[in-house]
Design goal:
Elements: H1 3-31, E1 42-47, H2 53-68, E2 72-77, H3 82-94, E3 99-102, H4 111-119, E4 123-127, E5 139-143, H5 145-160, E6 169-173, H6 181-199, E7 203-204, H7 227-241, E8 250-252, H8 256-268, E9 279-280, H9 287-294, E10 301-303, H10 306-322, E11 343-346, E12 349-351, H11 356-361
Parallel strand pairs: 1-2, 1-3, 3-4, 4-5, 5-11, 6-7, 6-8, 8-9
Antiparallel strand pairs: 10-12
Helix pairs in contact: 1-10, 2-10, 5-6, 7-8
The protein binds beta-D-galactopyranose (GAL).
Residues 52, 54, 128-129, 180, 182, 225, 255, 257, 283-284, 304 line the site of beta-D-galactopyranose.
Length: 373
């Protein structure tokens, strides 16, 4: 969607929300157990951390939309600390929030606080990451997480020509944080594409990581999605298993924060862009990584336009407030261990050097000057 169209859509959305939230003042109170007209509904927005680029965009965009629509908001970041996030949620509940929008750090740790929310008729939307092991999650909005992994796997297959019988190639796989429900889906999507080539010997894993099935993803996960964690792990693998001129040909990185650390490790081990630099995947279209893509130090990223996720969640908030039907498009995939949570999945998109401008700049996600273009 071009920049102008995006701005028009956002303005239209804010105007639409504004009309409904104005009248949601009373209805949401009634619906959500508030007594009478106590002013605009409070929406609590809980984000995991500011240290991973995308969540800053997610939080700011959603808060901006909801404020423009007349809601009160409480936007909180929890520095990737689970206890801090639980305390923030408790404070939002005590402050009479009507709706909680939660991008959880550890989706398995929130059942008790969500019970407190339910006891006060507070509605809960899981944002980007599913919340597990609780009946008190009303809706889930995210990107198609399994597809993200598939796109990374398919990119590797076509880039290396594996589907044309090329190989063998040296692969190093990574997975995301072990406490993140999404990481499981990213890995499964990629491994369902790549495993056949590992089994056929066209892809070899010199570090010896055993990934007999998707359930083994935690053996290659990097906790907290930390850049420095990925760099240290890649350093270790290159030092231990890539001696005597052996080169890594491809690295499966589930997202950009890890890809950045992996690129720093490759740099320090003398790999050259345009020369022996391996195929390297990513996700999120972080600024530094998009620059690396332009510099040949990363091959692709899976872009998830966080503005569209914010737009969809703002619509969900509004429908909940006015008691109308909440739009979902997947009522099968996301079973959180207690129930299948009705979900809205958005499409992820591959971005390479060739379409950074047409996809990320022309849509207004980045300014050309941000990228030195
Ligand atoms: C995932 C999210 C990704 C990536 C990662 C680290 O849950 O879906 O987009 O950002 O967390 O923040």
């Amino acid at each position: 969607m071009g920049k102008t169209l995006r701005i028009l859509a956002a303005t239209a959305l804010a105007a639409l929300l504004a009309t409904t939230s104005a009248c949601s003042k009373t209805r949401s109170d009634d619906n959500a157990g508030g007594g009478g007209d106590s002013g605009p509904a409070l929406v609590g927005i809980a984000m995991p951390t500011r240290s991973l680029e995308r969540w800053n965009n997610d939080g700011a965009h959603l808060e901006d939309l909801l404020k423009k629509a007349g809601y009160k908001t409480s936007l909180q970041y929890a520095d990737n600390k689970v206890d801090q996030q639980i305390t923030q949620l408790q404070n939002m509940i005590n402050d009479k929030a009507k709706i909680l929008v939660i991008a959880s750090i550890d989706g398995t740790a929130l059942a008790p606080v969500l019970q407190q929310a339910a006891d006060k008729k507070v509605k809960v939307i899981a944002y980007d990451r599913l919340i597990n092991a609780s009946p008190n999650v009303d809706y889930y909005a995210t990107f198609d997480n399994y597809k993200v992994g598939q796109l990374q796997g398919q990119f590797i297959v076509s880039k290396l020509g594996l589907d044309a019988g090329k190989g063998p190639f040296n692969l190093e796989p990574f997975a995301g944080s072990s406490d993140d429900n999404n990481a499981k889906f990213f890995f499964a999507g990629a491994w369902d594409v790549l495993k056949q080539y590992v089994d056929s010997g066209k892809l070899v894993i010199p570090s010896g990581k055993k990934l007999a099935s998707n359930d083994d993803w935690k053996t290659v996960s990097i906790n907290g999605w930390k850049t420095e964690g990925a760099q240290a792990e890649m350093d270790n693998r290159l030092n231990s298993f890539y001696t005597g001129g052996k080169k890594v040909d491809v690295v499966l990185s589930p997202n950009d924060s890890l890809a950045l650390g992996i690129a720093q490790s490759l740099d320090s081990h003398g790999y050259k862009p345009g020369g022996d630099w391996p195929v390297l995947t990513g996700q999120d279209a972080d600024l530094a990584n998009t620059k690396n893509i332009l510099a040949g130090k990363q091959s692709m990223t899976v872009w998830k336009d966080t503005r569209t996720l914010g737009d969809q969640v703002a619509k969900m908030v509004d429908a909940i407030s006015k008691g109308t039907a909440v739009e979902t498009n997947d009522t099968k995939t996301y079973n959180n261990g207690v129930k299948v949570v009705p979900s809205y999945l958005l499409p992820p998109v591959v971005v390479t050097k060739d379409d950074v401008k047409s996809k990320l700049v022309d849509s207004g996600f980045f300014k050309a000057s941000d990228l030195g273009l």
